[in-house]
Amino acid sequence: MKEYVVGIDIGGTNSVFGFVDNKGNCIHKDSIETQLFTNPVEFVATISEKIQKQLVNLPDTIIKGIGIGAPNGNFYNGTIEFAPNLKWKGIVNLTKMFIKHFHTDVLLTNDANAAAIGEMIYGNAKGMKDFILITLGTGVGSGIVVNGKMVYGHDGFAGEIGHVIVYPEGRMCGCGRKGCLEAYCSAKGIKKTYLNFVSGEGKTNEVPEADITPHYIYEKAKLGDALALKTYEYTGNILGLALANSVAYTSPEAIFLFGGIANAGEMLFEPIRKSFEDNLLNIYKDKIKILPSRLKENDAAILGAASLIWNKISNESEK
Amino acid sequence: MKEYVVGIDIGGTNSVFGFVDNKGNCIHKDSIETQLFTNPVEFVATISEKIQKQLVNLPDTIIKGIGIGAPNGNFYNGTIEFAPNLKWKGIVNLTKMFIKHFHTDVLLTNDANAAAIGEMIYGNAKGMKDFILITLGTGVGSGIVVNGKMVYGHDGFAGEIGHVIVYPEGRMCGCGRKGCLEAYCSAKGIKKTYLNFVSGEGKTNEVPEADITPHYIYEKAKLGDALALKTYEYTGNILGLALANSVAYTSPEAIFLFGGIANAGEMLFEPIRKSFEDNLLNIYKDKIKILPSRLKENDAAILGAASLIWNKISNESEK
C-alpha cells in the first residue's frame, strides 16, 4: 500500500497541490485560482473537490495527512492571520475547514517555514540539526531550525529575518518601517537598487520600468552590464551582513537560499560569501556554509507543505 | 537526605562557588582568585580542595553534579575556548579536570547561558518556553531559550546578541568589528556615550575618567543631570532597536535584562520599551514583555551555573 501526503501551497494568485511520498516524489499536481475566492470556505470546498477527484486515480493509497504552506500561516493555531496578499481578511482557520472535508491530520505554516522543513526532509539540509533557510522572492522570508526542530516561537510567528532592520533609518520597507532586509533583497528591492544605479549615472532604462525584474537584471549582468553586476554586488553585500548577524542568534551549520533570485548563482553567492565572512564574529569564521536550496523548483512549494506531515511522522517514530 | 549541586562561576578576577538546592537556596559560598593561576590544572585542584573542605560540613548530602558558568564556555565540549579575560590560553577541557576530582556529572556553558537557565529554573522565566536573557556588564551577552531548551547552535556558541551589528560602520567594538550592540550598551559603551555627550557640550568631567562608571552615571541621572539622563535614553534607544530585531528570530514571550546596568530600573527600561515597540514588526507589537531578571544578585552567577545540572535532571524526569 503506497502512502502519500497532500501538499498544498497557497499563493495570492494561484494555489497548487500534489501528492507527495516520503522520498519527495510529487504526482497528480493540480491548481486553482486563489484570487477567484472571496470566501475561504468556498475556496476549501473547491480545492477539496479537486483533491477528491485525484484520489479516485489513487485507489490503493493511504493519505497520511495534509500539509499547507500559506502566507502568514500560524502553525500553532492552524490559521492564516491577516495575510496582506489574500482576499480573506482577519483570522481564517483553514486547518479546521480541511479537517471537515478529509478527517485527517492537517498542519499549516508559512511558506518559508514549509520550505525549510522541505529542505530538511528532502533537500540539502538532510541530517542537519541547525540551519536557516532564506526565501528570496516577492518578499524575504525565513525558516530557522534549531536542534532539528522548526522554531515557531511563543506566538507561532518566529523567523521573520526579512524584517530585521539592517540599516536603521534606511530604505522604506513595505511593512511601514525603514531599513529592513526585505527592502533591499526582495525582487522589488533589487529592482530599486538597479533603478537607483541607472538614474545615479544619469542614464535611462532600455525597457519599460514594469519589465525590469531580477531576471532581467540577471540577464544584463551575464552580458557584462556594469550596473547590473553592481546591483548583485550591492545586494550580496547586504545579504552577507544580515546573514552574519543571524549567525549570532542560532549559530547554524549552514544557511540556504531559496527562490528564483537565488538562481543567479555565483553572481549573487560570491559577494554574499565575502560580505558574510567579513562581517562574522571571529568564533564563527570559516565554518558556516552558504548554499542554494536543492528542492526541485517546480515542486518546491508543494514538497515543503507536504514535509510538515512527513516531519511529524518522523518525529513521532523517534519517540 | 538533602540534595545539592555545586555551582561554580569562573570570572577573570575571581571564581566563586556554592551549594545550591533545587529551590535556589545557596549555602557555603567561597571563592578563589582566578588570576593567580596560569595553569588550569592547578586552578581546578585548588578550587576542588576548597569544595571538598566544605563537603565535610555537609555529611548527609548528595551532590547531584557540578555546573560551571565560564567565559567562552562551550556546552557541547565542556571546554573554555580562547577566553580573552583568562590566563589559560587555547582550548581548556575544564569539565574533564573536574570529573577527575569528583566523578560526578559536570556541565559547563558561558555565563549568559547559565544566567538564562537560572532565570528559567529559579527566576522570572519559570514556566516560559521561549525567552531571551541579555546580560549587561563588562560585555553584553545573551542566552536564548526556544521551546524550553537553551539554544547552543551547531558549534555550542549560539546567542552572541552583543555582537550583532546594529549600526553598520558604527562605533568600534572590542571584537575588532564596528557597530556591535556591545560597543554601545556594555559598561564601556555607556561610559563612552556619556563622555561623548560631555565633550560634545564643551564641558569637562567632575571626576577622573577612571571613576566614571555606569553606577556613577546612574547616580548623576537620579540627581537630574541632563547628560546622564541623555546617556540612559541613548542606550535604551539602541537596546530597544536591537531587541526588536531579536524578536524576528525566535519570537519570545519575554526578554530579561540581567546584570548591574539593568538595575538602573525605569531610567533604562522606559526608553528601551518605547524604542522596542517603535521598532517592532506589526505582528509582534504589544505582546512581548521586557523584564528585569529576578535572580538574587549576589548569588545569581552561582545559581545560574548550578541550574545547568538541575535543568538536566528536570529534563530527564520528563522523559
Please, could you describe this protein's structure?
2 copies of one chain form a homodimer. Chain A has 2 domains: 2-117 and 298-318, ATPase, nucleotide binding domain (Nucleotidyltransferase, domain 5, 2-Layer Sandwich), CATH 3.30.420.40; 127-293, Nucleotidyltransferase, domain 5 (2-Layer Sandwich), CATH 3.30.420. Chain A is α/β, with parallel strands linked by helices and 319 residues long. Chain A is built from 9 helices and 13 strands. Chains A and B meet through helix 7 of A and helix 7 of B.
Give a quick rundown of the structure.
The structure is a homodimer of 319-residue chains. With 319 residues, the first copy, chain A, is of the alpha/beta class. Helix content of chain A is 39%, strand content 21%.
CATH architecture of the largest domain in chain A: 2-Layer Sandwich
General form of chain A = globular
What is the SS-derived class of chain A?
alpha/beta
Q: Class of the largest domain in chain A, according to the CATH hierarchy?
A: Alpha Beta
Termini gap of chain A:
24 Å
Overall tally of domains of chain A: 2
- If helices are DSSP runs of H or I spanning 4 or more residues, what is the number of helices of chain A? 9
Biggest sheet layout of chain A: 5 strands, mixed
Can you count the beta strands of chain A? 13
The CATH topology of the largest domain in chain A turns out to be Nucleotidyltransferase, domain 5
Strand arrangement in the largest pleated sheet of chain A: 3-2-1-4-8
Protein chain pair with the most extensive contact, residues per chain: A-B, 46 and 46 residues
Oligomer: homodimer
Strand content of chain A: 15-25%
Order of helices and strands of chain A: EEEHEEEEHEHEEEHHHHEHEH
CATH H-tier superfamily of the largest domain in chain A: ATPase, nucleotide binding domain
